[in-house]
Predict the structure.
Amino acid sequence: MRIGVLTSGGDCPGLNAVIRSVVHRAVVDHGDEVIGFRDGWKGLLECDYLKLDLDAVGGILARGGTILGSSRVQPSHLRDGVERAKGHVEELGLDAIIPIGGEGTLKAARLMSDSGLPVVGVPKTIDNDIAVTDVTFGFDTAVGVATEALDRLKTTAESHQRVLVVEVMGRHTGWIALHSGMAAGAHAIVVPERPFDIEELTRRVGERFEAGKRFAIVVAAEGAKPRPGTMEFDEGGKDIYGHERFAGIARQLSVELEGRLGKEARPVILGHVQRGGTPTAYDRVLATRFGWHAVEAVHRGEFGQMTALRGTDIVMVPLAEAVETLKTVPDERYEEAETVL
Ligand code: F6P
C-alpha cells in the first residue's frame, strides 16, 4: 500500500511519535510505502512531500513539534481545494491518507472522506477537547509544563505578597486550567465553560490574605470570561482562520483584582511553551498506539474513521461523530477542583 501522512493545525508534543509509529508499522510490518506531506494539507494541495522511511523517523520519538511541519491551511479554504487534493492523491497512487490534527483538521478530514478519499484520522490537541476520545496526546505534557510553572510561580508570589493570574491555553475548554490548577494547588481556577463572577473571585482571593496567607494563584484558561455585565472586559477578535485572538484574560483579571483588593497583581501568560518540547512518556505511548491503530484501520479498509482512546483500549470512531461537539469540563469536575482550591 501507499500511505500519505500529514500533521495539521497547532503543533503538539507527540506528533513525531505518531509519524514514527505509522512508518514502523506500515513499512516494517506491512511492507507499505509512506510519504509525508509538508506543512499539513498545504503539502497535499501543493504536492509537496517527502519519502518517510526508517531513517527519516530515526531519533524523533522524544522530539517535540513535527518533522513534517504544520499549517492551518485546509482544502476547504480554496475554491478548488478538495478537487485539487483528490487529484494529487490519485496522481501519487495513494491508498490512504492519515491526517493528524485537532478539531479543524478532523473536520477537513471528514470533508475529504465524504468526497470519497480513503481517510483515517488521528486526533491531537493539548486542549484535550475532542469529545470522542478520553484523552488526546499532548495534554499530559501541557499539564506537566503548566504545573511546573505554577509551582515555581508560588515561591515568587509569596516573596512579594502578590496575586499571580496565570493564563494557560484552552480556547473553548478549561481542561489544562483544571488539571494544572488542581495539580499545583491553585487558589482559583476560571474556565470558559463557567463564566466567572468577579465579586466571588475577589472574595475568594481576599479571604486568603485576610487569613494571613501571603499570596494567591489564579489559573485562567485563555478563553475564560466574566459573567456578562459584571466587569469591563475585552474579548478580542478573530484571526484570518477564524480562530480567537483573545485580548488577554490574565492581564485584564490582574488589573481588576489589584484594583478591588489593593494587592499587587501580575499577569503571567504561559502561551506556546505549553506546546513545545519533549512529550511525556504517557503522550509518547498514546501517540504511538494511535499511529499503530491508524495503519491497522487502513489495512482493514476502515475509512472515514479516527483513532480514539476509550478506557485503556484504542477504538475507531466515525469522523462524523468526532467533530460534532467539544468535550467540555463537566460541572462536577469543576466542583471537585473547587473543594480543594
Ligand atoms: O492547539 C490549540 C491551542 O493550543 C489553543 O489552546 C490555543 O488557543 C491555540 O492553540 C493557539 O495556537 P496558535 O497561536 O498556534 O494559533
Summary: Residues 139-160 form the longest helix (22 residues). The chain has a mean pLDDT of 96. The longest strand covers residues 2-8.
